[in-house]
Amino acid sequence: MTRPASPVGFTPALGHRSLTGLYDVAIAVMTRERVWRSALLAQLAPHDGETIVDVGCGTGTLATLIKAVAPGADMIGIDPDPEVLDRARAKALGREADVDFLQGFAGDVTDLIGRERADKVVSSLVFHQVPIDGKRAGLAAIHAALRTGGELHIADYGWQRTPSMRLLFRQVQALDGVENTRLNAAGGLPDLIAEAGFEGVEERAVITTATGSISLYRAEKPRDPQPDPGKVRLLDGSPAAAL
User: Which residue numbers delimit the Methyltransferase domain (predicted)?
Assistant: First the structure.
């Protein structure tokens, strides 16, 4: 069932492989990590017995936090970068967290874990780095990997609502590329989530940081096989950006 993904074609941590070793420190200092990770963890509400997949798990910080809250959960971390996976495995070992780390892209999730296996999928600071075709492929694979009624939770750079947030977000775009990040900054990610077949897509929180605003999104894989993809709710009640 498991097939290794090619490490070619992804954006490394902080945009450049030479900066990978600084990733944890940079995220902590520049993104108010404790604030959004705590909010994401509370929104995810992990429980023992659930199968939870962290897509784009990076160095394993979130995956190990989830295991600390729900040690009886079946925790899987997926990332295309073998170097950060080595760091994630070392971190999990040091924290005595039993996490299964697999190499692959978001679009490989179904191939790696199987269809309708996951109860919850979580992803943080990943989709803004991915080209739009990769965003669509990743969300489709996540949808297929989730059980009916399963939940998707994302923390990522979203709609940069103010001139100051748009200005700060240019730092991220300089590292991760303007083309890849443009859709997120325009507020288009919720529409892509709905387009992939999720329902109840909503923006739960907006957290301002020194690198732009990070949004927390939640959605569900519907029990109804034909959901209305047009209903997307942002935190302030405004419509999501049309694609």
Answer: 52-150
